[in-house]
Specification:
Blueprint: H1 3-10, E1 53-59, E2 67-70, H2 71-75, E3 88-90, E4 98-101, E5 106-109, H3 115-119, E6 126-133, E7 138-147, E8 160-166, E9 174-176, E10 192-195, E11 201-207, E12 213-219, E13 230-238, E14 246-256, E15 264-265, E16 269-275, E17 283-286, E18 289-290, E19 300-304, H4 310-315, E20 316-318, E21 324-327, E22 338-347, E23 354-364, E24 372-378, E25 381-383, E26 391-398, E27 408-412, E28 418-424, E29 427-432, E30 443-452, E31 459-469, E32 477-478, E33 482-488, E34 495-499, E35 502-503, E36 513-518, E37 521-522, E38 525-526, E39 531-533, E40 539-542, E41 553-562, E42 569-579, E43 587-589, E44 600-605, E45 613-616, E46 618-620, E47 630-634, E48 645-647, E49 653-656, E50 667-676, E51 683-693, H5 720-751, E52 773-776, E53 851-856, E54 864-866, E55 882-885, E56 891-897, E57 903-909, E58 920-928, E59 936-946, E60 954-955, E61 959-965, E62 973-976, E63 979-980, E64 990-994, H6 1000-1003, E65 1006-1008, E66 1014-1017, E67 1026-1036, E68 1043-1053, E69 1061-1067, E70 1071-1072, E71 1080-1087, E72 1097-1102, E73 1107-1113, E74 1116-1121, ...
Parallel strand pairs: 1-7, 8-14, 16-23, 25-31, 33-42, 44-51, 53-59, 61-68, 70-76, 78-87, 89-96, 99-100
Antiparallel strand pairs: 2-5, 3-6, 4-5, 6-7, 9-12, 10-13, 11-12, 13-14, 15-18, 17-21, 19-22, 20-21, 22-23, 24-26, 26-29, 27-30, 28-29, 30-31, 32-35, 34-40, 36-41, 37-38, 39-40, 41-42, 43-46, 45-49, 47-50, 48-49, 50-51, 52-97, 54-57, 55-58, 56-57, 58-59, 60-63, 62-66, 64-67, 65-66, 67-68, 69-71, ...
């Protein structure tokens, strides 16, 4: 809590205001929970004595109650007025350290004062107090200085300091120490240091600018690690206070070792024996060396010497840590049987020292080399009739191993007609051992095995390829002696019918075969006139068209001859069966043969029953097989009438279908169509004339029935409605008759096959090509699918065998072995040895190349270094070497001796080296041999002098100084110190760090980068205007770590980093809105911890309210009101006070005050309007709310709480309290009575609104209440009046015209407005067309002329209705008498009432007739549309979509109105594995046979389709429509259908192995419609009795190939035009089940029937229901179906 607030809450007063000495004091005068505020305001005239300051001093650590000063007396205040004037002391730092006794005005110590905690190391330390008194307000500043006492001893940051000193450090070397720190200031913090006595070090003290001291150790005697490895010293620090305090730290000096001993091996030479082919990582030897040094100087690393050649480095590997030498590569005795390895061991000292040794490795031989086989001569080929003993090849063997491992023996692969003959050591001959046969074995791979004598033995193999040359000893041979070929008759000349192929076991020319015919006579003609064979390919061609009727079988032989010497030949027999083609039309037998045009007459009694056989049509076809299978069809009559006769499908018997009656014509003309089943089908027609004869008299012509005419009464007359009904019936009947006539005409024109060019074309059976199978139908779509079982043999497609491409033979020239083939001169080998004498033709060379040695500069003369040996490839004296060295003042050459007596050169140091004078020495080592003339070789020896750490780093400057702002962030770079070292390598690498000479309390302020030397700020540098002193040490990386230091001086400058601080001492809120201007609201003080201009503060205020800010004295301000306040306009104000300092940039502090304005009752309640209107509907309930009044008071609390009161005012003579009441709290007006609009339409009263303030204020409002009318009164009819309850009667003359006024109905309504607005209506009348009434006036007038037929007595009911909600009404009944004279007695209207709108009997009959005729007409239209859609399901979609394209291509389909369309569903089966469904549309018109495929196909597919289907269509008219609407025409020759189905299963089973169909296509499915009648299960016989069915006579198939049973289980016989549900392929065990697809149905692959399996009986029950429905549908349209089919 802030001081001002604390004081304001602690003391309370009555709110008096005083002026004294020019000071103004404001304070809070409020008890707990009170609303009022009393503010006192004093003008600030002069500050007087309050503007000065008092100074006191007190020592730190003073006890509680220690006297500081008489502050009240010093300020000139009386003791008696301290309490009344609220004397108080405030401090911003530690207000609890000092306290004032208000009884005696003495300032005393209240709690412990610690100067170090309060001010740190600042030289001046004080406590700032502010003394505040009220009445008048005065503020005094008091400074209390805290004096330092020596209460803190010197303290070191650590208890023990470790110092590392190398034993090689020189005398007078200096080692900085970390000094002690004393928290006191002045003399109390001045320290002196003392070192314990020792013989090696003395203490030196460095004085700094701030009079502090830093201790430094100075070396006075050289150290020896072996004698004194560590020293323990004690450093003591003493301050200058009284009494003195001391602090000490232990110094641990560790003497570091120097590398002055080289490593030594336990033996100079090691000898090792090992076998070759050791695995990698095999241990060869474990070397051991030792070093007497310690630490890193004793750590050793093993390595191969630089003298070791690269080949040894690849073979061996040494472990740097352990000295293990291991195998790293293959060790081969044959490459080298010994190795000399030079090994160096080096310690890790600086500089490093090295030792040397030699390892001699002897390699022992193992049997690791397999024998090698070389074929020195080779015969490329050997004739199969070569003689035994012929030499084939010469073979030599060898082995790189020595001793028994190198002895080799050879052997040969068993069971070959060859053997090995040894000529001399390691040489063999391969000779022929038995006769050869190329046809049995065309070549040999002879494997020669060579085995050595090692243990285990190794062997090698070599393969010798011996090719056997061919001789002509085999004749050509055919795969089989006889082939059967099927060829359709009428083939084109030159057609390829078969390809023969013979093979010859010989090779090349001996195997080249030519073909020729074996000529013979075929009848009277030569064989060569029928067929020919190609000499090279063996293709057999038919030279002329073959005729099945002339020649059914052609048998001949083809000869094959090779080109060998002598030539050999073979023969094969071909049987060519000529297959029948449908090229003969059926021929009629009997009387029908010569009278086709006139017809055959036949008499028939009318009394015969159904099934009577009338006659039989006989026909025969010259073709055979399926082409000779005939079927009979009865052509329908032209009129479309159903014929009473039928014809047997396969028997030709004409029989009656029903009993003949009188309605049948006496003469019947029957046209029978005889059609075969070929492709295309051929037909013949027979006409049968039948005369119907009765047994009795001829029936008379029926007499014309006489129409009954009803006599019409003279009084009957047709009304207008009857005329309209009759006209409508006639119109609808005419339309019906015209529709029927049009339909009959279209059906007749479609049924006549000879009328017009628009009749249907011939149905076509589409056979398959190699791409798939087709099924064809005119009006139905069928789906045929293959089963999932293995493919049937009779459904396989045979691909023609392609003759192999002729390949030219390759000739090879034979190479013969040296010597004659007759082996008269055998092959001989001789062995010779030549000794080569050595000459000095090789100069000595150094395998290791140039040598590089690293020698430390501190080595003494006499040190020796081994140099590499040179090698000379010569022998004897030519290889004796001598060495020499180029002149040098530092080195000389000496020769060393090994155990085996060999010499090697050594380099001896003669004079100590100095790296600073010369760091590299280049020498030349020369080796010279003893030959004549002598040859020499050189190697360059590079000696690099290794540096030692003998130079300490040196800084560029001894002192670095800078200035840094106090707000410098962490990481700010202050300096970048640089030091250099004359040494090299790690001895010259310098690392920077803070020296121990830096005070401990300053070490955390700085961070030194160890590499770059950047000195950065690590923490806040402390108060401004402070000088910081630090030391940086630069130390190299040498073994002895030489170092030097430099001084850093950092002066901290002040920056404007402290924003002004603002403290509100007093603040009063809320403020009453009626306070006078100039009232003090708040007293605040500001301060800034910065110095100079950065600490000067100015204050400003920003507010929209009437306030001002005034400065009272230094850094004190008051907030005053500057004008009147109004809470209703602003209930609070935001005052923003900004305190800114004078820094650059300036900093500022903002404090926002919320000044609340307290309310007073200065506003009366206010109604929005002086008058208010309320509306209430009449007949209201008691206590219902009528509305409310509302007055607003902008005051708060009770001042703004409004209460309402009804004033006692008399309105319309009635007191207002008796009618309404007002709720006091919310102003709701309540009805105290039920209002009636007819009695009281409105009144006014006054309501008063009064607030709860003191004194209260009030306002009034006048309320006008209006009663709203409701529709609670029905209309009252005034005229005409009812007398004694009787109906008023008006007389209207019959001569009255339209608009004659009959009477006027007058009514009134006591309501008002729309509730009283009346309208008149007639709701009932004897004749509604005779009268009308005015809606608004109520005048009843005649609507037309009075007719004689109008009734005399008319009755009219008039209703009068108002427009209320809901409307109310009244009615009156009026009587009207149609008479030209007034009757004496008025008729009675009570019982007579003629209903309106009663139809007469004639009207009713006419309406029923019109409805029946209309229904019949619509039914006919619907039937015709359905029949048309069922006939052409795709006409709607296709004609619309492709009309424009048909027009564009010239096919005017609209010009042929009787054209119909059909669909072809194509199922492509590729070995019964996949099913493809094609949809095609085929027009039946003879000029529009277009095949439309709705899918994308390429040109190749179209050609294959067009040429394979055998479609009886112009190929140019095939049109393909893809998705994009493109067209493509394909021209191809039609292909013949596959005749494989003609043969029985037994015949085809024997033909599968030999039948070759050239580009054969297998018929996958039979004909798909009634136009190609197949024998079915249900229609094989005309009678429904049980039995067996065999194929038709002349079908060309075996009767055993298919037989099926029929009987009661399937008694249904397909009628004319019906589609059988099962077809049998003759000669196949398969049954094709064809499911008829409904019109416009979607293709569903699940409906496909299995093809190739007799499983159709499983679906018999499923189809039985569909067959019954189809039968019923077809009974009424058999004639139509036959004509369409």
């Amino acid at each position: 809590m802030k001081p001002g607030n604390r004081i304001g809450n602690k003391w309370h007063n009555d709110g008096s205001v005083k002026q004294d000495r020019g000071a103004v004091a404001t304070f809070r005068l409020a008890g707990p929970g009170s609303w009022g505020l009393l503010l006192s305001c004093l003008l600030l005239a002069a500050w007087g004595t309050g503007s000065g300051q008092l100074h006191y001093s007190v020592p730190e650590e003073a006890k509680h109650g220690t006297f500081v000063g008489r502050i009240a007396q010093d300020l000139g205040l009386e003791l008696a007025e301290l309490v009344p004037r609220l004397f108080r002391v405030a401090s911003k730092e530690r207000g609890d350290l000092l306290e004032v006794n208000v009884q005696n005005g003495i300032l005393f110590v209240n709690s412990r004062i610690d100067r170090e905690e309060l001010c740190g190391r600042s030289a001046e330390c004080g406590i700032h107090l502010e003394v505040i008194v009220d009445r008048p307000l005065q503020v005094f500043h008091v400074e209390v200085e805290v004096r330092d006492i020596n209460d803190n001893p010197p303290v070191f940051s650590v208890t023990e300091q470790k110092i590392l000193v190398p034993e090689s450090r020189l005398l007078d070397s200096r080692f900085p120490l970390e000094g002690a720190c004393d928290a006191d200031v002045g003399e109390n913090s001045m320290l002196t240091y003392k070192l314990s006595s020792n013989e090696f070090f003395v203490l030196d003290v460095i004085s700094k600018k701030d009079k502090s001291k830093s201790p430094v150790l100075v070396l006075r005697k050289l150290l020896d690690r072996e004698e004194n490895p560590r020293l323990n010293l004690l450093l003591t620090a003493t301050d200058g206070g009284k009494p003195e305090f001391t602090g000490s730290v232990s110094l641990l000096i560790l003497v570091l070792d120097a590398n002055d001993n080289a490593p030594v091996f336990d033996r100079p030479v090691y000898e090792v024996k090992m076998y070759e082919n050791q695995v990698n990582q095999t241990l060869v030897i474990w070397l051991n060396a030792s070093d007497t040094d310690e630490g890193i100087n004793r750590e050793l690393e093993y390595s191969f010497s630089s003298l070791v050649p690269p080949v040894i480095r690849r073979k061996f590997l040494i472990n740097e840590k352990t000295g293990e030498v291991k195998v790293n590569d293959n060790i081969d005795f044959e490459e080298s049987n010994n190795y000399e390895i030079h090994v160096d061991v080096t310690d890790k000292g600086n500089p490093p020292m090295a030792g040397h040794c030699t390892v001699l490795v002897e390699i022992l031989d193992e049997n690791d080399n397999s024998p090698e086989i070389i074929v020195t001569s080779l015969s490329l080929s050997v004739k199969e009739d070569a003689q035994v003993g012929t030499v084939i090849a010469l073979i030599s063997v060898s082995d790189r191993d020595s001793g028994g491992n190198g002895q080799v023996t050879c052997s040969l692969t068993p069971h070959v007609p060859f053997r090995l003959v040894s000529t001399f050591k390691n040489y063999y001959s391969l000779v022929l051992d038995s006769a050869l046969d190329r046809e049995t074995t065309p070549g040999y791979e002879v494997v020669v095995t060579a085995r050595d004598g090692g243990a285990p033995a190794l062997w090698a193999t070599a393969s010798v390829s011996v090719e056997v040359a061919d001789v002509n000893d085999n004749a050509p041979a055919f795969a089989q002696a006889e082939h059967t070929v099927f060829v359709k008759e009428n083939n084109p000349p030159g057609a390829h019918i078969f390809t023969v192929s013979a093979t010859d076991a010989d090779a090349q020319e001996n195997a080249r075969v030519t073909y020729s015919l074996v000529e013979r006579r075929v009848g009277e003609r030569a064989l060569s006139s029928y067929v020919s064979v190609h000499a090279q390919s063996g293709r057999v061609h038919a030279l002329q068209p073959l005729d099945h009727e002339e020649l059914e079988l052609l048998r001949f032989q083809v000869s094959a001859r090779d080109a060998g010497e002598p030539a050999l030949d073979g023969q094969v027999t071909l049987q060519v069966f000529v297959l029948d083609d449908n090229d003969n039309a059926p021929a009629l037998l009997g009387p029908e043969a010569g009278v086709q045009a006139a017809g055959v007459s036949q008499l028939l009694w009318r009394s015969v029953g159904a099934g009577h056989v009338v006659t039989k049509v006989r026909a025969v076809d010259a073709d055979s097989g399926y082409n000779a299978w005939l079927s009979y069809e009865l052509q329908p009559e032209a009129g479309g009438a159903r014929s009473p006769f039928r014809v047997g499908l396969y028997t030709g018997e004409i029989s009656t279908t029903r009993a003949l009656d009188e309605a049948d014509a006496p003469r019947q003309r029957l046209l029978v169509l005889v059609k075969d089943h070929g492709e295309p089908a051929l037909t013949a027609t027979a006409t049968v004339l039948l005369s119907l004869v009765d047994s009795g008299q001829a029936p008379k012509a029926p007499s014309r029935s006489r129409a009954l005419v009803d006599a019409a009464g003279p009084e009957a007359s047709l009304l207008d409605v009857n005329v309209y009904l009759i006209v409508a019936i006639c119109a609808v009947s005419s339309l019906l008759v015209l529709t029927l006539l049009l339909y009959v005409a279209l059906r007749c024109s479609a049924a006549s096959p000879t009328e017009g060019a628009c009749g249907p074309g011939k149905p076509v059976l589409v056979c398959s090509s190699a791409v798939g199978s087709w099924s064809y139908s005119q009006q139905r779509r069928h789906r045929v699918c293959s089963g999932e079982g293995p493919p049937k043999a009779d459904l396989m497609a045979f691909s023609p065998s392609l003759p192999p491409c002729p390949v030219a033979g390759l000739g090879m020239e034979s190479q013969s072995i040296a010597g004659d083939e007759s082996d008269k001169d055998p092959l001989e080998l001789h062995k010779m040895r030549v000794h080569v004498l050595d000459i000095n033709d090789n100069a000595p060379i150094f395998p290791a190349g140039d040598v590089q040695l690293h020698i430390p500069e501190f080595l003494t003369p006499g040190a020796r270094f081994t140099l590499p040996n040179a090698q000379d490839a010569d022998e004897g004296s030519n290889s004796v070497l001598s060495y020499s060295l180029s002149p040098s003042q530092h080195f000389r050459l000496d020769m060393g001796s090994r155990i085996d007596g060999s010499k090697y050169p050594e380099l001896v140091l003669e004079k100590a080296l100095d790296r600073e004078q010369r760091d590299t020495h280049l020498l030349v080592l020369t080796a010279q041999d003893g030959g004549l003339p002598a040859r020499s070789g050189d190697a360059q020896v590079t000696i690099i002098v290794v540096d030692t750490n003998d130079n300490a780093p040196m800084f560029e400057h001894s002192v670095y100084s800078t200035k840094v702002p106090e707000t410098a962030p962490n990481g700010t770079v202050l300096f970048q110190v640089r030091a250099w070292d004359l040494d090299e390598g790690s001895n010259g690498e310098v690392w920077y760090s803070l020296s121990n000479s830096t005070l401990a309390e300053l070490r955390h302020l700085f961070h030194v980068h160890p590499k770059s030397g950047e000195v950065q700020v690590a923490a806040s540098l402390g108060p401004p205007e402070t000088l910081l002193e630090a030391y940086v040490e630069a130390r190299d990386e040498g073994a002895f770590g030489l170092a030097s230091t430099t001084k850093l001086l950092v002066r901290v400058t002040d920056v404007n980093d402290h924003a002004p601080e603002m403290d509100f001492m007093t603040f009063f809120s809320p403020v009453p809105e009626d306070v006078p201007s100039g009232t003090v609201i708040a007293l605040l003080s500001v301060k800034d911890e910065d110095l100079g201009s950065n600490g000067r503060i100015t204050c400003s205020m920003s507010s929209k309210g009437p306030f001002q800010l005034k400065s009272s004295f230094d850094n004190y301000y008051t907030l005053l009101t500057d004008g009147p306040l109004d809470r209703e306009q602003a209930n609070e104000y935001q005052v923003l006070i900004t305190a800114s300092d004078g820094g650059s940039p300036p900093l500022s502090t903002r404090r926002s005050l919320t000044v609340s304005v307290a309310d007073v009752n200065d506003n009366a309640p206010h109604f929005s309007q002086p008058q208010q209107e309320l509306f209430v509907a009449e007949n209201n309930n008691l206590g219902v709310s009528l509305g409310h009044v509302f007055a607003q008071d902008p005051d708060l609390g009770k001042n703004g709480l409004v209460f309402y009161k009804l004033l006692d005012v008399i309105s319309e003579g009635i007191p207002a309290p008796s009618l309404v009441a007002v709720e006091p709290s919310n102003g709701v007006i309540i009805a105290r009575t039920s209002f009636d609009f007819e009695q009281l339409r409105g009144f006014c009263f006054q309501v008063e609104g009064r607030d709860g303030g003191s004194p209260p204020r009030s306002a009034t409002v006048t309320v006008n209440l209006f009663v709203v009318d409701r529709n609670d009164n029905a209309p009252d009819i005034l005229f005409p009046l009812l007398s004694n309850g009787s109906i008023p009667v008006e007389i209207v003359p019959r001569s009255a015209r339209a608009g004659h006024l009959v009477t006027k109905v007058v009514a009134e309504d006591s309501d008002s407005g729309s509730n009283a607005w009346l309208s008149y209506h007639i709701i009932q009348a004897s004749d509604s067309s005779l009268f009308r009434i005015s809606v608004n006036t109520g005048e009843l007038r005649t609507a037309r002329l009075v007719l004689p037929t109008d009734a005399i007595k008319q009755k009219v009911v008039v209703v009068v209705r108002d427009h209320g909600d809901p409307p109310l009404s009244s009615s009156i009944i009026l009587g009207v008498l149609l008479s030209n004279s007034a009757p004496q007695v008025l008729p009675d209207y009570e019982d007579i009432w003629e209903p309106e709108g009663q139809l007469s009997t004639q009207n009713l009959y006419l309406v029923i007739a019109l409805a029946c005729v209309s229904f019949l007409f619509l039914g006919c239209l619907f039937f015709f549309v359905c029949a048309k859609l069922s006939q052409s399901p795709d006409c709607c979609s296709q004609s619309c979509c492709h009309f424009s394209e048909d027009m564009r291509h010239g096919r005017m389909m609209a010009s042929n109105p009787c054209m119909t369309s059909a669909t072809i569903d194509v199922t492509t089966i590729e070995r019964l594995s996949q099913t493809y469904l094609y949809r095609a549309s085929l027009g039946l018109g003879s000029d529009n046979n277009n095949l439309l495929l709705h899918r994308e196909y390429n040109v190749a597919d179209l050609r294959n389709l067009a040429t394979g289907v055998g479609l009886n269509l112009p190929i140019s008219s095939i049109q393909i429509r893809n998705k994009k609407g493109d067209h493509a025409n394909v021209n191809a020759m039609p292909r013949q259908p596959n005749p494989d189905w003609r043969y029985s299963a037994s015949l085809r089973a024997g033909m599968h192995s030999s039948v070759h169909l050239e580009e054969a296509g297998i018929l996958r499915a039979g004909p798909g419609g009634p136009d190609q009648q197949w024998p079915t299960v249900s229609s094989a016989t005309p009678e429904p009795e049980a039995g067996e069915v065999s194929p038709p006579v002349g079908a060309g198939v075996n009767s055993n190939s298919w037989t099926f049973k029929y009987g009661p289980s399937n008694p249904k016989q397909s009628g004319p035009g019906e589609l059988p549900d099962k077809f049998i392929i003759p000669g196949s065990p398969a049954i094709i089940s064809i499911r008829q697809e409904p019109t416009n149905s979607q293709i569903d692959k699940s409906d496909f029937i299995t093809f190739g399996k007799k499983e159709e009986t499983k679906k018999k029950k499923k189809k039985k229901k569909g067959n019954k429905t189809q039968e019923k549908k077809e009974k009424g349209h058999s004639t139509t179906d036959n004509s369409d089919q």
